[in-house]
Structures are given as C-alpha cells and as structure tokens.
Specification:
about 575 residues; Thiol Ester Dehydrase, Chain A; Alpha-D-Glucose-1,6-Bisphosphate, Chain A, domain 4; 9 helices; about 25% helix
C-alpha cells in the first residue's frame, strides 16, 4: 500500500488568466497520466521507480521537443527526492514544461503527483529538473528560441534556471574539492567491525541487449530505459546488503556521457558504496559495446535506499566492509556525497520560510549557500503583488506582506550604465559613503570572485542601546542573457571565528539585495529588496507607516554616489570586481 501524505496537493488548473484577461497555457507544457497496473509494480504492489523514471523522461523529452521543434536527447537530470510511493490502482500525473532555453540546451521542470481516484485527492511525489540538448540538423547546430515567461511562477522558474545551470556546471568541481578534504579515519574504524557485510557480496552485474522497443523515436536507447535498468541492478545490490526489499529515496544529479543505440550490449554494474545508519548509497555504472569494440561509458549514478518497517519508518542497516582495492575510495566518496545531499536538500531545496535566518558557512557548502542566496533574491524579485506605500522624486517604496512576513522594495533610476552600478554597489565597504546605516564594514573572507563575507556594524535600533553587527554573505551575479539583471544578494551566515559578543547585538538578514536592470540610453533601474527581520525592520518601519521618508534620502545619496563615481572604476578594490 502506498504511503499517502497528510497534505494533499490540489488538482492543477491547466489554464491561467493573465492580467489582461486572456486565457493562457504554457505552450511547452506536456502532461501524462498513467494508471498503475500490476505489470508496473514491484513486490510491494507499488509503482517501480524504474517505470516512473521512464515516464518522467518521456514526458520531459516531448516538452523539450515541442519547444525546440526538433529531436532532443537527455543530457542530465538533477537530484530527485521521492517523497512518497505510488500504489497499484492509483494514477500518476506527470507535468513537464521548459523553464528556460539557452543556446542549444534547455531546462525542463518535471512535477510528479499521485491521484487517488476514489477520494479525488492528489499529492506530490517528486519534482525534478532535466537538461535536454537539441540534436543537430542537416543545416547544423540548432539555435533555440527563448522562453517568454507569462506568469509569476514561470518568471520565477525562468530566473532560477540560470542559477541551477551554474550549479550543474560546477557540480564536479564541488565533489572533487570535498573529496580532497575527506579523512580516511572512518574507513579504518569500519574495517574493525566484525559484523560488517563485505561489499563484494552486494556486487551485481547484468547485461541488456538494446532492442527496437528500448529505443526512442531517434533510434537511440531511450534515456528513461537506461535509468530503469540502472535502478533495477541498484535495487538488487541494496537487497543483498539488508536481505530485505529496499525503497529508493533519492538519485543524485547525473550526466549522460555518451549515446547508446539499437544493437548495443549494455553492461550494468552496481555495488553498495557505504551503509549509513538508516540509508545506503549504491553506485551504478552503465557501459555499452558492440561486437569486439571496447566498452563505452554511458552513465554513472548514485542512488540512496532505505528499508522501511511495517510503520513505514526506516530500519537500522548493517555496516559494510569496503573492498580492498577501490572500495575504500568509494566508501569515502559516499560520505562526501551524503554531505552534499544534505546541503543541497536543506539549503537549496527548502522553502525560504524553512531556512534558518543564519546558516553556518564553511568551504564545503559555500557553493550551495551562494545558490540559495541568489535564488532567494530572485524569488523575491519575481513577486508581482507589491503594493506601493510612498513615492518621492521618483524613488518608490513598495511593501509585500505574505505568510506573516513583511518584505519591502525600494526602486529608483540613475543615469549610469548598469555594469558600472553593479561594480560600484558590489563592494559593501563603499556603501557607508551613501547609507548612514552602514557605520563600519570589513571583509572577513573572499571566498571566490562571486562571493565575499563581510562584517557590517549598524546603529542601535533604540536610544542608548547597543549597536548591531551582521555577518553577511554577498553573492554577485552578472547577467546570464541580455534580458537578465545584475544581482547582488545578501544573507546572514555564521562563522565560528566571529561569534556574537556582549558589545553588539547580532542582527540577521534572511534575504536582501539589489537587482540592477539595463535600460535605454545608459539609464539603469535599481531595485533594492529586503525580507524584513527583527534586526532590520526598525530601520524602515517609520517609512512603511508613512511617518518618515528617510528611504528617499538614502537612495538619493546612492544616486549621487553612483553619479560621482561612475568614472572611477579603475580605483575599485579587487574584491569588488
């Protein structure tokens, strides 16, 4: 019986009403609905994860091809977390649509939900992002048309797609950096356990002959079919460790490294890399060959399994003893990937309201904190229900109250090029020249060219009280395409070397920053956003209440600062560039 969450997902309406009253449906949207039959199910009467992966890949591919107007192939799939299972007799609803197109690749968002026909309830199963590449035509490489977002949700996904693409490009670099810092102490400890299961016992190797039913309409092996075969051998491997039926919980981000075709022999290998207390990681490799040719590497994936008891709670798993040759490396790499999974799940995937105000920063999670920082600002900027509170000399103050959280936006225009504005505002140390709230500002850490951590001191919010200090991560992004803004995102982080002290009240920033848009004739629109926290709200509350217009004075000073310094970029500190 499938486990059903307590918070059902409402059935989605296929059409939207735009502000102009027109009915709208995303032209790239493709939907698939499948009733789960016994032939689709595993031993527990639940939909096989491999079958679900095939349906997901097929739906996403059709969406990509609808946008591209030509054949497309699966290039990669981001992390997939399966929240629930699906039982026989229930309906799988899959919706896929292109979030953003780049030169020849595009990101497709995939939402999978389960529907119970008897109760008319529907709930989320998983949400995934896949990258598809348009295949070359006879005339050469395909140049994809741009996606034009029409709704707030589409604008948000369009904006976030650029940041997710950046994360995909540096994913291997993050893994390598984390692996290089791993210790081998855990491996030695595991070898001492006498009851540990030898990893060799979990090894599985299987071969599949690619036949026409396994191929897509491009006569290449269907990407979803390869994923299904990989899931099958991974499940067998996991079963050999625990002598029970495991449940697939997540699949790490993976890339298809090469094509496979009809007639290929696909060799699939799986082994348990590491067993944690309640979960295990299984590594799977797919290689192809024809005749006497050498093996071609098609794909490698890492899947996380759990074993559930009668109450659907994870069971404790036996320990594993790594193989003597490459086993220790795989064992240690699995620990590093678990760390990355946790960072990605709780830093990237959380709703902004679920992320703690201040997140610990360290080199292993800096990329994910940077992603979360920029993504939060993009999500705030994509909101369309801002209400103007006051306006003075073309400086506008907007507010947005939602989910018991107050946000504000200040917007103005300057006669300075957007790139110059970006460079001048990027270094927070220069902000005290125009913002009286910034009394002191120092650089703590220059993480890389895009991220810097500052300590900022601001005035006391009460007369005679302590001054406040903030530890802020500043993440900078240049436009991905010509229609994108420059971004400077700010959020609080914690550093062990800079704990709160008695002399200062430690303030926190959840989400703040600048969105800088290039307009005509070297005019630039600057939008400053802040998701007000107790440490920030006192500085702006009188403006929001209409009792003051200090926001105008601050941004008038900002405009003057930009005008005066637009020709002095050569003297900017290195960290601001």
């Amino acid at each position: 019986m499938a486990n059903e969450p307590s918070d059902p997902l409402p059935l989605e309406a296929p059409m939207f009403i735009l502000e102009n009253g027109e009915m709208y449906r995303n032209p790239t949207e493709v939907k698939m609905s499948q009733i789960v039959l016994p032939c689709h199910a595993n031993y527990c009467g639940e939909l096989s994860a491999g079958q679900l992966l095939k349906w997901m890949d097929s739906t996403a591919c059709l969406s990509a091809e609808r946008h591209a107007g030509c054949s497309c192939i699966t290039a990669s799939v981001d992390d997939i977390h399966f929240e629930t299972t699906i039982g026989v007799g229930q309906v799988v609803n899959i919706t896929a649509k292109v979030n953003r197109a780049f030169t020849s690749s595009m990101e497709v968002g995939i939402l999978v939900s389960c529907e119970d026909l008897f109760s008319d309830r529907q709930w989320k199963v998983c949400h995934a992002f896949a990258t598809f590449v348009a295949r070359r035509t006879e005339t050469g490489k395909v140049q994809l048309k741009q996606v034009i977002p029409h709704t707030q949700a589409e604008q948000m996904e369009y904006s976030l797609a650029a940041e997710r693409r950046r994360m995909r490009l540096i994913h291997a670099e993050i893994i390598n950096d984390l692996l290089s810092s791993c210790s081998s102490q855990t491996v030695s400890e595991c070898l001492d356990y006498q009851d540990a299961v030898p990893a060799e016992r979990t090894r599985v190797e299987s071969v599949e002959l690619v036949l026409p039913p396994h191929a897509n309409h491009q006569v290449s092996t269907f990407g979803g079919q390869i994923m299904a075969w990989m899931e099958n051998v991974a499940t067998i491997s996991a079963s050999r460790l625990c002598n029970a039926h495991p449940t697939l919980r997540s699949i790490d981000m993976f890339h298809f490294r090469g094509p496979s075709h009809i007639g290929d022999r696909l060799v699939l290998k799986a082994i348990v890399n590491n067993a944690f207390k309640k979960s295990m990681e299984v590594g799977v490799c797919a290689e192809a060959y024809q005749g006497g040719e050498p093996l071609r590497h098609i794909n490698t994936a890492f899947m996380t399994f759990e074993v559930l008891d009668n109450d659907r709670k994870p069971c404790t798993l036996p320990r594993i003893r790594p193989e003597p040759v490459h086993g220790k490396r795989r064992f240690q790499e699995a620990i590093a990937r678990k760390k990355i999974r946790l960072d990605r799940k709780y830093i990237i995937s959380c709703k902004q309201s679920e992320v703690p105000l201040s997140v610990p920063w360290d080199p292993s999670n800096q990329m994910y904190l940077s992603y979360n920082n920029v993504s939060a600002l993009k999500m705030l900027a994509a909101r369309t229900n801002w209400v103007i509170t006051s306006e003075k000399n073309k400086v506008s103050l907007y507010t947005l109250e939602e989910n018991q959280m107050l946000c504000f936006k200040v917007e103005t225009h300057v006669a300075v090029a957007a790139e110059q504005v970006f460079l001048l505002l990027s270094d927070l140390r220069r902000r005290k020249a125009w913002d009286h709230h910034y009394q002191e500002c120092e650089v703590i850490t220059d993480s890389n060219e895009d991220d810097t951590i500052y300590r900022v001191v601001t005035p006391s919010v009460t007369k005679g009280g302590k001054v406040q200090d903030f530890i802020l991560l500043a993440s900078r992004r240049r436009p991905c395409d010509s229609g994108d803004p420059y971004l400077i995102a700010l959020r609080s982080v914690t550093l062990p070397a800079y704990p709160p002290t008695e002399d200062y009240n430690r303030g926190e920033v959840l989400c703040a920053g600048f969105s800088i848009w290039e307009e005509e004739n070297s005019f630039t629109k600057i939008s400053y956003y802040n998701q007000a926290t107790p440490g920030v709200l006192p500085y702006i509350s009188t403006d929001i209440a209409g009792l003051s217009s200090s926001f105008y004075c601050t941004f008038a000073s900002c405009s003057a600062f930009l005008e005066e310094n637009k020709d002095s970029l050569a003297s900017l500190p290195t960290c601001s560039l």
